[in-house]
Write a structure and sequence with these properties.
Elements: H1 11-20, H2 41-59, H3 64-82, H4 86-105, H5 114-137, H6 141-168, H7 175-180
Helix pairs in contact: 1-2, 4-5, 5-6
């Protein structure tokens, strides 16, 4: 499975797309007098990705009925770009989830609030579960076991984060006790 593009987009092309969307990052003319360089490519792609996600967020409806239709519509465009290779789709999803996990985790923070810790663990559970299935599909039992262990540890972290958040708000009753109320 190859995830490399047949026609990679250059930094200049990405910068032009951002300019067309009125979202180009301000470059330091002293550092980049000739404009964007190829080493800026990933940074520019991140900017383009953020702009795209902001546009999708602004364009989607926030009602239950319409939201599902909007998501399905964006998935059609997503699928057209990825093609039919399920391995590529899993790779793209995994990368997206890893970006989300890093954004949720606030990398500069020494300690996360418990709700964010639980959210980070939830995203990582998805990363590990996708990885486990990918390893299983390849017949890699050791890789599958390793990924499943990561998913199980992350599930424990979700529960611990939710418990810690309950304690932080003074709610020591678990979900069972609340259902009885």
């Amino acid at each position: 499975m190859s995830t490399s593009s047949k026609r990679p987009v250059t930094a200049e092309q990405i910068h032009a797309a951002l300019a067309a969307l009125a979202a180009e990052p301000v470059a330091d003319p002293q550092k980049r007098p000739a404009g964007p360089q190829e080493e800026d490519r990933l940074h520019l792609l991140g900017s383009l990705l953020a702009k795209t996600e902001l546009e999708i967020t602004a364009a989607t409806r926030l009602t239950e009925e319409g939201e599902v239709e909007d998501v399905l519509e964006t998935l059609q465009g997503w699928g057209e770009q990825l093609g039919a290779d399920p391995g590529v789709a899993v790779n793209v999803l995994t990368n997206r989830l890893q970006r989300t996990a890093l954004q949720v985790s606030e990398p500069e923070a020494e300690e996360l609030p418990p709700g964010r810790e639980a959210a980070f663990a939830a995203v990582m559970t998805a990363v590990y579960a996708l990885g486990a299935q990918l390893h299983a599909d390849r017949g890699d039992a050791e890789g599958t076991r390793h990924a499943l262990s990561g998913a199980e540890e992350a599930l424990i972290d979700i529960l611990q984060g939710m418990h810690d958040l309950r304690v932080a708000i003074g709610d020591t009753a678990g979900p069972e006790e609340q259902a009885d109320e």
